[in-house]
Amino acid sequence: MIKAKVVSKEILAKDIVQLRLTPNHWEDWQPGAHLDITLPNGMERQYSLVPCDNGQYAIAVLKESDSRGGSLCIHDDVQVGTELQLSAPKSKFSLQQDGRAILMSAGIGITPLMSIADALHAANIPLDFRYAFRAPDQAAYLNWLATRPWADACQQHISSEGTRLDIAKTLQDLQPDAHVYACGPSAFLEPIEAAMSAQNCLDRLHVEYFSNKELELSGSDFIVHLAQSGGEVKVGEQETILTALQREGYDPMYSCEDGVCGSCILPLVEGEAEHRDKFLTDEEQASQSELAICCSRAKNNSITIDF
Ligand code: FES
């Protein structure tokens, strides 16, 4: 684990702060990368890196109204001088080095797309950057955007001013060499996925969910068999595999509990999963070789996981 000290905490917009961190070991990072950060309250959360000086990391955090403790802890308890534990930077996005790019972000979902836009522009990829937000006082990095060499390619879509982003129109008749990079909550990303799917080009969509508020966790009860210990645990209608394991004293890895971060993914040994996460790709879900235990369930009466 890397240790890092918070060296600045700055309010960027309503309910959004930026932290700059000085780690004891700095690694360069790929566009769109994030850090796993262990907070003072013991929770682990993922935050996208935003461009800053080498030797430091910067993240921006929205205070979520229904926070389970991650964003609240950063806003209320993390101050200049606080020491945090970090993973090395990790990246889920893979950037195409040809064609053109449409970048679509909603709210704080702009953060991973900032470094991606810089990298694509440096690779001479034509950009169409859409930044959707509710109101100007709730939008981070407007000044930063205005300084970019690709600033002319950025359009702001401001709900309070009646210029809401029309996703279907933006993506209709997608050019064959266009790739789409998108980040935001599920209500923003699902219509993007639907529009890309309707044109049979999901393979050109690169997404990162930062929350999955519509996630339905309940379902029929089932038995989860544990391949490593030989034990079995009943998962009740209102439980997840994760919470059922915790009830029985097990301590599996997890982080977001929203099906978006991938921390809780475990190999599936037997049985079929009803996948509910937004982390695994369609192909990975169809292969039935792993599942996210914070949200996915057994399709039938039982399932065996490698735990
Ligand atoms: S804990 Fe994040 S996907 Fe399960």
From TrEMBL:
Residue span, FAD-binding FR-type domain: 1-96
All copies of domain 2Fe-2S ferredoxin-type, residue ranges: 213-307
GO terms (BP aspect): methylation
InterPro entries hit by this protein: 2Fe-2S_ferredoxin-like_sf, 2Fe-2S_ferredoxin-type, 2Fe2S_fd_BS, Beta-grasp_dom_sf, FAD-bd_FR_type, FNR_nucleotide-bd, MRET, Riboflavin_synthase-like_b-brl
Signal peptide as annotated in the record: none
Record's protein name: Vanillate O-demethylase oxidoreductase
CDD domains to which the protein is assigned, alphabetical: fer2, PDR_like
Record organism: gamma proteobacterium HTCC2207
GO MF entry, a single one: 2 iron, 2 sulfur cluster binding
Pfam families the UniProt entry points to: Fer2 (PF00111)
Keywords carried by this UniProt record: 2Fe-2S, Flavoprotein, Iron, Iron-sulfur, Metal-binding, Methyltransferase, Oxidoreductase, Transferase
